[in-house]
């Protein structure tokens, strides 16, 4: 009887371990789509119903052969533009060809806009290779500058700031805030509906002060491990239980969307935090 009891306990333990492993694998390989409807009177009539897809923090991840599953989901979203918010390549596995090959397919779907992340700042010559190839494919690479999108005689602006790590060699990014403030000074929001691409969400106060209508960000990986009803456990540059971990934040006329990202870096798995493609619908 005792032996049977021990056997049953052992089976339960093995079953729980298998379930945990399966959950970790699913949490890394299951692509999800999160859709937001943003209502803003500042959106021009011509951009009512405009669809934006955001991908962030790829970190060389692959979903299916040649990222076929990722590409299919983005196609199904039928975006007007695609925004890529940094860490497209992982500094620990600096293979830019994965991102370049993915981009070659993305530009067939919609116009693409890209900003750097902290990992790009550590890539050296690999980043030069990535940037050159993105530009050759027709991607608008935004490095402290602004581009304009025109539709039926009306326009919106889309700006991007370089990751502060390009100018800050300190391990903890001690100068990040002052660098970001300086970069934003060179960008004019004007009277147009203004979109900002910035890898770092922790500078939300600066984005609000500048007057951007919509900000796309990443960097946090959703807190890597998410606790139900609590949120993310840890995010770089914010620490334990970060305020800006994932999702939509709205304050003082500025909306910021933080993608949970697609890939992983130092920690190779996620918990309760599936890789995410973001879709935003603009509504007048």
What does this protein structure show overall?
The structure is a single chain. The protein is an alpha/beta fold and 284 residues long. It has one domain: Metallo-dependent phosphatases (Purple Acid Phosphatase, chain A, domain 2, 4-Layer Sandwich), CATH 3.60.21. It has 6 helices and 16 strands. It has a 6-stranded mixed sheet, covered by helices on one side. A 6-stranded mixed sheet has the order 6-7-8-9-15-14, covered by helices on one side. Strands 10-11 form a two-stranded antiparallel sheet. Strand 6 and strand 7 (154-160) form a beta hairpin. The longest helix has 28 residues, at 2-29. The chain is globular, with a radius of gyration of 20 Å.
What top-tier CATH class fits best?
Alpha Beta
Instruction: Count every beta strand, where a strand is a DSSP E run of 2 or more residues.
Output: 16
Distance between the termini: 70 Å
Reported CATH architecture? 4-Layer Sandwich
- Averaged pLDDT, please? 92
Helix proportion: 25-40%
Q: What strand line-up does the widest sheet have? A: 1-16-2-3-4-5
**Total of helices:** 6
Q: Give me the CATH superfamily.
A: Metallo-dependent phosphatases
Runs in which pLDDT lies below 50 for 5 or more consecutive residues are none
Number of domains: 1
Please give the largest β-sheet.
6 strands, mixed
Give the overall form: globular
